[in-house]
Write a structure and sequence with these properties.
This protein is mainly alpha-helical and about 160 residues long. The protein is about 55% helix and about 5% strand. The protein has a 3-stranded parallel beta sheet, sandwiched between helices. It is elongated, with a radius of gyration of 19 Å.
Length: about 160
């Protein structure tokens, strides 16, 4: 079997939360960090075969995707609370839990409604002669935050972003 060079492309959709953590998002961050690690391993493995692997890390496009609705968040929250062990419910308290859920609900309409930066990134990754390893379609606030979190010592980024 002979493989012709530069035949393949893999473009995985990760997230800015595949590069930096965020409170109340651990399941999401864990899976997106996983997509990053998987894609990085695959990029090394596929390079000798001429297959290029890119990762697109979109910022906040929640409003454009309708991934969440206040109704679905409330339904999941109710199920979570009902299924929590009594000891955990007592430790955190209903007030704390409800505050976090209310915050989550405000995310539903947050972010950009224009997905064209993401589409452009995927298009470039698929068609450019030399696609980038990572694409960062996101607004400037999150782009800067991601640079700080990924490039500066943890103590510095914690000082800025943990409150
Ligand atoms: C990565 O993208 C490829 C298609 O480009 C897809 O088949 C695969 O399931 C994706 N993997 C992950 C972990 O998202």
């Amino acid at each position: 079997v002979s493989l012709s060079p530069s035949v393949g492309r893999v473009v995985n959709i990760s997230s800015m939360l595949g590069r930096m953590a965020n409170p109340a998002r651990s399941p999401y961050c864990i899976t997106k960090f996983g997509v990053e690690a998987f894609s990085d391993c695959l990029r090394y493995e596929m390079y000798p075969l001429g297959v290029k692997v890119s990762v697109v890390e979109p910022g906040n496009f929640i409003a454009a995707t309708s991934l969440y609705s206040p109704e679905s968040i409330r339904a999941i929250a109710k199920k979570m609370w009902d299924e929590l062990p009594e000891v955990v419910r007592k430790d955190y308290g209903k007030k704390y839990f409800d505050e976090k859920i209310a915050k989550m609900e405000t995310y539903c309409s947050s972010g950009s409604t224009d997905t064209s930066p993401v589409i452009d990134a995927v298009t470039h990754a698929l068609t450019a002669t030399t696609p980038y390893t990572r694409y960062h379609p996101m607004d400037y606030y999150w782009w800067l935050r991601m640079q700080i979190v990924t490039h500066l010592p943890g103590a510095v980024s914690d000082m800025i972003y943990i409150r």
